[in-house]
Design a protein that fits this description.
This protein is mainly alpha-helical and about 100 residues long. The chain has helices spanning about 1-10, 25-40, 45-65. It has one domain (about 1-75).
Length: about 100
């Protein structure tokens, strides 16, 4: 990821890691997870690192080859927005019905 960010900065292009739908972060997280799991199982750093790089590269290559991407984030509809209540609306007798 660091190399891609440096490349994008030097080329004055938008940073690819930040693109919506990009699998950069997913690939990096997957590789990191493989590394941590293999180390926890007692494998050497060398074996774990090679597996980490292989998984990360495989995910990125497959994502580019088959045009895989994450879905774009959308606004969630149907959630009721809370009504704002002014302090002046809360004065008066308690038994008065309120539209909150």
């Amino acid at each position: 990821m660091g190399g891609g960010v440096i490349r994008d900065i030097l080329l004055n292009t938008p940073i690819a890691v930040m693109h919506v739908g990009s699998l950069y972060a997913v690939a990096a997280a997957s590789g990191t997870l493989i590394f941590v799991i293999l180390r926890a199982l007692g494998n050497s750093v060398d074996v774990s690192a090679v597996a980490c790089v292989a998984v990360t590269a495989a995910i990125r290559i497959l994502a580019v080859r088959f045009h895989w991407s994450l879905p774009e984030q959308r606004v969630i509809r149907g959630i009721r927005q809370p009504k704002l209540v002014r302090p002046a609306d809360l004065t008066g007798p308690i038994d008065t019905p309120r539209d909150l």
